[in-house]
């Protein structure tokens, strides 16, 4: 029996080398998916492969590359695509940023979402497939010490909405969900931000993090994204959710 026959469907998760991405991969595998996990660091995706076993297919690649997006979509024809890859923002107030540092998350997070969503529409994902775009709670309230991060993440939400409309117009049957996680110190990216915002307020990171409780953990992110993927009853073309330690909460 070929390996593809052992699994219900294939999911692709970008940024699967650590943090939210590896937890999402684990939860989707528990749910019976094969997961193609993409990150640039070969050692990180190899570690995840060792931990999760044969159901995790490690791919060491830059998810901002348009050709990578096209090839992996054509090769694996995923029914679930989780666009989670993201750069750690350059920390500092606006006057200490350069344009290069300010635009880092546009170059990585937004660019990758653009290429994968575009490829998913042009080499269309199958009817009934689901694209989950990971934005951020910062897209609602701003993030003054994180350069252009909040704007880049807001654009990802818009992008998913634009794509959902094109899917509807062309009757492609591809569904989109945008998820806005709350800040958490539980990952490398979140810990760096918590440290910076705590310092700005003149308090320590533990005190700052206490105000975020119940903390969002990678395990909660994984479980909630997997729950979203199970929910085939909801046929809305574009759903938007905040994600906190209490779980998913639909935005109107
Ligand atoms: N943690 C939070 O508080 C928080 C809150 C709201 C939203 N988010 C969002 O949630 C997502 C995951 O964050 P996280 O906290 O889990 O971050 P993380 O622990 O830093 O993990 C980020 C992952 O993305 C990968 N990545 C970065 N650039 C990439 C690229 N060009 N191509 C492929 N993979 C790339 C990284 O691997 P390589 O470096 O090896 O490529 C890593 O596997 C991000 O989009 C982030 O903005 C996080």
Structure description:
The chain has ten helices and eight strands. Helix 1 crosses helix 10. The model is unreliable at 1-5 (pLDDT under 50). The protein has helices at residues 19-30, 42-52, 66-76, 99-102, 104-122, 138-141, 149-169, 188-201, 205-210, 218-230, and strands at 10-14, 34-39, 56-60, 80-83, 130-134, 175-181, 238-244, 247-250. It has a single domain, classed as NAD(P)-binding Rossmann-like Domain (Rossmann fold). The longest helix has 21 residues, at 149-169. Helix 1 links the parallel strand 1 (10-14) and strand 2 (34-39). The relative contact order is 0.14. 46% of the residues lie in helices and 17% in strands. An eight-stranded mixed beta sheet has the order 3-2-1-4-5-6-7-8, with helices on both faces. The chain is of the alpha/beta class. NADP nicotinamide-adenine-dinucleotide phosphate binds at residues 14-15, 17-21, 38-41, 44, 62-64, 84-88, 108-109, 134, 136-137, 181, 183-184, 187-190. NADP nicotinamide-adenine-dinucleotide phosphate is lined by residues 14-15, 17-21, 38-41, 44, 62-64, 84-88, 108-109, 134, 136-137, 181, 183-184, 187-190.
């Amino acid at each position: 029996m070929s390996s593809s026959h052992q699994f219900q469907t294939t999911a692709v998760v970008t940024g699967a080398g650590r943090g939210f991405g590896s937890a999402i991969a684990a939860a989707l595998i528990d749910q019976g998916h094969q997961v193609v996990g993409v990150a640039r660091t070969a050692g990180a995706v190899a570690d995840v492969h060792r931990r999760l076993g044969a159901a995790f297919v490690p791919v060491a690649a830059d998810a901002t590359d348009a050709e990578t997006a096209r090839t992996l979509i054509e090769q694996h024809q995923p029914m679930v695509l989780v666009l989670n890859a993201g750069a750690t923002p350059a920390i500092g107030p606006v006057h200490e940023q350069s344009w290069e540092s300010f635009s880092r998350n546009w170059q990585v997070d937004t660019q990758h979402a653009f290429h994968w969503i575009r490829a998913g529409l042009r080499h269309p994902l199958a009817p009934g497939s689901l694209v989950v775009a990971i934005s951020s709670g910062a897209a609602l309230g701003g993030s003054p010490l994180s350069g252009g991060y909040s704007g880049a993440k807001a654009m990802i939400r818009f992008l998913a909405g634009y794509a959902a409309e094109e899917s509807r117009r062309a009757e492609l049957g591809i569904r989109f969900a945008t998820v806005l996680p709350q800040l958490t110190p539980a990952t490398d990216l979140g810990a760096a931000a918590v440290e910076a915002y705590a310092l700005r307020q003149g308090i320590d990171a533990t005190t700052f993090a206490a105000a975020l409780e119940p903390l969002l953990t990678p395990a909660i992110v994984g479980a909630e994204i997997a729950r979203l993927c199970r929910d085939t009853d909801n046929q809305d073309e574009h759903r938007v959710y905040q994600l906190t330690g209490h779980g998913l909460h639909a935005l109107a």
